[in-house]
Write a structure and sequence with these properties.
The chain is mostly helical. It has helices at residues 2-44, 48-62, 68-81.
Length: 83
């Protein structure tokens, strides 16, 4: 029993490490995208908010959403951005 608990604990720590790593990667990519959108917005004279909105909406259209929770989340994002 103790060995099973230790194994579960180790697996939980590994899962947390992987989640943390993915979060850092996602945050880094988000920062890069934001910088690029800012540069593009300055070059085109388009407000950053509009550029960001268009970028997100165009990418949402390209993502295949397969589960209900993801479909709901995508619908909320589209609704908020289209206001």
């Amino acid at each position: 029993m103790k060995e099973q608990l230790e194994k579960l604990h180790d697996e939980a720590l590994l899962a947390q490490f992987n989640i943390d790593k993915q979060l850092k990667i996602t945050m880094s990519l988000t920062m890069v995208i934001q910088r690029q959108l800012s540069v593009l917005a300055k070059k085109t004279g388009t407000p950053v908010e509009d550029m960001t909105r268009e970028f997100i909406l165009s990418n949402l259209a390209n993502i295949e959403v397969t589960d209900q929770a993801s479909q709901n989340a995508a619908a909320v994002v589209k609704k908020v951005l289209n206001k």
